[in-house]
Amino acid sequence: MKLLYIFLTLVAAVVGGYLIINDFNFDNISFSNYLINALFIILLSCLAIAGIFYLIAVKRRKNDRDIMTIRQYYQYKSAR
Description:
Blueprint: H1 2-21, H2 28-63, H3 70-79
């Protein structure tokens, strides 16, 4: 349900932004151009945010690789 509210807010913001920019005059051609540009910018922003989260996740995963559990440490210590 929360995702639905986010999408509805996004649609309202895009349409409201168009109406404010054009002094509440609606034209089909200019609206479709605005919509294409706005959705392209939103898509690129989402891809950039997803890329940043992916890089953070990869960095965190690499930091945990060299850490042993207590059991692994004692097995490693007794094998030497």
